[in-house]
Amino acid sequence: MASAAEIIKSIAALIWPLIVAMLAWKAFPVLKSIASSRSFSVKIAGMELSVQDATEQIQKQIADLQQQVIQLRSIEAAAGSLLPPRELCPDESLGYRPRRVLWVDDKPTNIAMEISQLNSIGIEVVQVQSTRSALEVLDKDK
């Protein structure tokens, strides 16, 4: 026959999940109302963040990105009308160099969109991260 200690351990193993389930059941309406409202806030390490504030910040960032896309498209349209088509660009096989831009930026990930735009209109972009590197590239190109 099972000892009293084994019986208590078995009962304890069954009681914990029941207690957790009961607490979750009691807290469910409160958690549901918090999740469905957009006005709740969270305090972490003395800082308070409201969901409404976070939503407004994200909306502002999206609006800024949309403005940048519109500006880039208008720049691309203007540049496309000023530059010859790709097939009319000088070809290296004929002794000419293609158009190139030397772009110096210490954070090249910030300019990926600009480089893509330049490449799409037939301009090669040479990227370097320092003035010293830029001068080396220019010396090699002489």
What does it look like?
The longest helix has 33 residues, at 4-36. β1 (41-44) and β2 form a beta hairpin. It contains 4 helices and 4 strands; from the N terminus they run αββαβαβα. The protein folds into 3 domains: 1-36; 41-82; 88-142, no CATH class. By secondary structure, it is of the alpha+beta class.
Descriptive key words:
single chain, 142 residues, alpha+beta, 3 domains, two-stranded antiparallel ribbon, two-stranded parallel sheet, 4 helices, 13% strand, elongated
What does the secondary structure layout of this molecule look like, with pairings?
Layout (H helix, E strand, L loop, with lengths): L3 H33 L4 E4 L2 E4 H32 L17 E5 L7 H9 L3 E5 L2 H10 L2
Parallel strand pairs: 3-4
Antiparallel strand pairs: 1-2
